[in-house]
Automatic annotation (TrEMBL), chains A, B, C:
Conjugation of reduced glutathione to a wide number of exogenous and endogenous hydrophobic electrophiles. It is an enzyme of class 2 (transferase). SUPFAM superfamilies: MAPEG domain-like. It comes from the Eukaryota. Pfam families: MAPEG. The keyword Transmembrane helix applies. This is Microsomal glutathione S-transferase 1. It is a multi-pass membrane protein. Belongs to the MAPEG family. Its EC number is 2.5.1.18. Keywords: Acetylation, Endoplasmic reticulum, Membrane, Mitochondrion, Mitochondrion outer membrane, Transferase, Transmembrane, Transmembrane helix.
């Protein structure tokens, strides 16, 4: 039972790998937003215009590409962060390793496909399906954690 | 002192239960937003309109109900996520179990009441009070963690 | 190898200290937003106007100061939260303590300077530099975690 939250536990190692991947993907959205802000000259701060744009560039001009990347980033914050938090509690609840690793894989795949669906974009319901699958993976872990704490303690 | 972050520690079990509850509540805000986007036909992406709305439906029409749910969701991200992160550090700092469990309960109750205050909505200062109580619970844990690392190491 | 995620591990103690600091800084952005909403009378909810403003105050009037604080808060959520999550996995991967503590210090310093750059504001590229340094610290830890799980298991 000891050291469940450590690399000696295969479930934890897999959790670290897949959550490391999806968190890295989330991290990339920030610089991607900045890149498109620079390329499309879409700035929200006067000091950004002063440094990164030609004099006279307008402020807060909304740009569809920038806003799309930001919505995708926000969706990651709303889903990848709860996955990682609930996942840590889930791993510490010592779940069946095979089932746990499958949940991590399904979640990671669904989030990479969600980003592709959002940024290309692919026709709906691609993005909606990816969202629901990833959401279900997290919800299943949350249910397991809550059940573990109330029924088995 | 070992195994503080595991289900053999009653403080951890309670933390897992209450943070599992508030994270689940946060998770529900996403589909709730989607549901009201569908019901009120408020879409921000062209591909969503194409699939989920009648031809000719306008884009990015802002809707008060959808925006209210989104602000409530955002407030959860700003408060429930820091609670869970600081809470993990706090549990690993081996606090007094009774005090810890009370902090978790107060936080969880304040966030469920915050959501009710925001979505019904209840007259202010209901929502402000819930916010401050939950914020105080997290801040108290953060203070304990920082004090533990500097004064007792 | 045991008890990596505990206060007996100096790397963890330092992680708890620095992530406690940056999470506390993030927490402060919420009440700071509320304070400037009250001072500048910028409310998004009808029930807030009813309670906190003179009768007839307009809704959703956007205010540059409030929006600036909110963007700074959002940037924290996008960077401090992934840092803490990846940091926990990183500490559990048993990194070199000196290098790890330096990464935590660099990240914490970069985020405090980022907030100062954003709120004063300082001329660019101050804020951009702080963002990149903090981002790099988190990315380095993420790389270490993923490498640890695939190459050494």
């Amino acid at each position: 039972m000891s050291d469940l939250l450590g690399f000696s536990n295969e479930t934890f190692t897999n959790f670290a790998f897949y959550s490391g991947l999806v968190l890295s993907k989330t991290l990339i959205m920030g610089p991607l937003t900045s890149m498109f802000r620079g390329r499309n000259k879409v700035f929200v701060n006067p000091e950004d215009v002063k440094r990164f744009a030609a004099p006279g560039t307008a402020l807060t001009a909304s740009d569809p590409t920038v806003e799309r990347i930001r919505r995708c980033h926000q969706n990651d914050l709303e889903n990848v962060v709860p996955f990682t938090l609930i996942g840590l509690l889930y791993v510490s609840a010592d779940p069946d390793p095979d089932r746990a690793i499958n949940i991590f894989r399904i979640f990671a795949a669904s989030r990479f496909l969600h980003t592709a669906s959002y940024l290309l974009p692919l026709p709906q319901p691609s993005r909606a399906t990816c969202f629901i699958v990833g959401w279900g993976a997290t919800a299943a872990m949350a249910f397991f954690v809550i059940a573990r704490t109330t029924f088995f303690k």
